[in-house]
C-alpha cells in the first residue's frame, strides 16, 4: 500500500502538468505521437541514470567545490547532458513530423519528452526517499523540467517557422537557443539549490516563481496565437 501511495505521489504531478499542456492545444496531437515522445523522455533519463552508474564523475558530491566549480559542474554534468538528450529525442521524434503544423505543437512535444524524463527520475527519487521528497519534487523538480521544456519547444518551433520562411539567420538563432536557454535555466536552478548559503536559497525561491509565471504566460500566449507551420516545406 505504501509503495502504491508513493507511486501515485510520483506520477500525479506528471499527469496534472501533462493534462494542462495538452488541454491548451486546440488541435489535439495524436496520442500515438505523444506516447512516443513520453517514452523517448524515459529513455533519455535511463541514459543519464546509466551514465551515473558507469562514470564516477556524475556522482561527485559538490559540497567541497567553490561556487564557480559548483556552477560549472551543474552546467556541464547535469544541465548540458540532460537537456541535450531531451533535445535530441525531441528533434528526432517530432521536428519533421507531419503532425507538427502549429507553433504550439512543439511546446506540447517538448513538454511530453520532459515529462517522460521527469516521470522516470521521480520514481528513482520518491520510491526510496519517501513522501516528503515526492511532495517537494511535485512543486519544484517536475514543474522545473516542464518550464525548461516550454522554452525548448518554443524556440525549436520558431526555428522551423523561420526555416519555412527562408529566414536562415533567425532559423539558426532559434535553433541554437532551443538548446542553450533550457541548459542555462536548468544550470541556474540546480546551482542555486545545491549551494549551502541562505542567500542562494533565497534567490532560488525568487527565481522559481518567476520561471513558472513566465513559462505559464508563454503557454497561454502561444496556444492562443495558433501560428501555422508548413511542414511540407522541409
| SS element count, helices | 8
Radius of gyration: 18 Å
Which sequence of SSEs, written as H and E, runs from N to C? HHHHHHHH
Structural class by sheet pairing and helices: mainly alpha
Classify the helix fraction into a percent range. over 70%
Strand content: under 5%
Taken together, the total number of domains comes to 1
Your description of this structure?
There is one protein chain. The protein has one domain. The protein contains eight helices and no strands. The chain has helices at residues 2-23, 31-54, 67-94, 103-129, 131-139, 141-164, 168-194, 198-225. With 234 residues, the chain is mainly α. Helix 1 runs antiparallel to helix 4 (103-129) and helix 6 (141-164) crosses helix 8 (198-225). The model has no long low-confidence stretch (mean pLDDT 94).
How are the secondary structure elements laid out?
Elements: H1 2-23, H2 31-54, H3 67-94, H4 103-129, H5 131-139, H6 141-164, H7 168-194, H8 198-225
Brief sketch in words of this structure:
The protein is mainly alpha-helical and 234 residues long. Helix content is 81%, strand content 0%. It has one domain (2-225).
